[in-house]
Design brief:
Elements: H1 3-37, H2 40-92, H3 97-100, H4 119-136, E1 140-153, E2 158-170, E3 179-186
Antiparallel strand pairs: 1-2, 2-3
Helix pairs in contact: 2-4
């Protein structure tokens, strides 16, 4: 045999081995790639569940804060309505405006009147009714007070009354530590 024939036959003989080797190395690489990917889907799922949990926890906290601030807003509205109620009672009974001065719901009169009241008795009944409305409201530890100041206006010496109606209550968010105050001032 000639040398060139021998070389070609050797090449042919080696070719399947080389082919086998190439195929085996490719299969091993695929298998090792599959083994390196094993469990990655589980980790991705755990990360996704953790992100979802943190997001839901954040939404829950946001909901709690919204409810707390809604409660504070509602308390402010109730205090405004109670102050306006007392200011209207004073405006309706101007004859006894001095009777309302320094009125406080913690020291409300013991008794008022139910019908055919004179202005002073009506003022006492107004303070009693206002105290009961504050106690019956949603305000925590609510207290109301009225301050009436008279001032002279103009050269004719006309007296004008400045009425300040104030409602205080404990803030429910702080556990009753912070006092909230709403003041309504009017000239009846």
């Amino acid at each position: 045999m000639t040398a060139s024939l021998m070389i070609t036959s050797l090449k042919q003989a080696l070719q399947p081995r080389a082919l086998r080797k190439t195929l085996l190395s490719r299969l091993q690489r695929r298998r090792s790639a599959r083994h390196s990917q094993r469990g990655v889907g589980l980790i991705e799922a755990l990360v996704a569940v953790m992100l979802l949990g943190v997001s839901l926890l954040g939404l829950g906290l946001l909901q709690v804060q919204t409810l707390q601030h809604q409660r504070v807003s509602y308390s402010n509205t109730v205090a405004q309505l109670l102050s306006l109620d007392m200011a209207e009672r004073i405006r309706a009974n101007l004859e006894a405006i001095d009777q309302y001065d320094d009125a406080d719901t913690t020291n409300a009169p013991a008794d008022g009147c139910s019908s055919d009241c004179v202005p002073a008795e009506l003022a006492d009944q107004d303070i009693i009714d206002w105290r009961d409305a504050i106690i019956g409201s949603t305000l925590t530890s609510g207290v109301g007070s009225v301050d009436v100041d008279e001032r002279v206006v103009g050269g004719a010496g006309i007296g004008v009354h400045d009425v300040s109606v104030q409602v205080q209550w404990s803030d429910p968010i702080s556990g009753g530590v912070d006092q909230q105050t709403y003041r309504f001032e009017v000239e009846p």
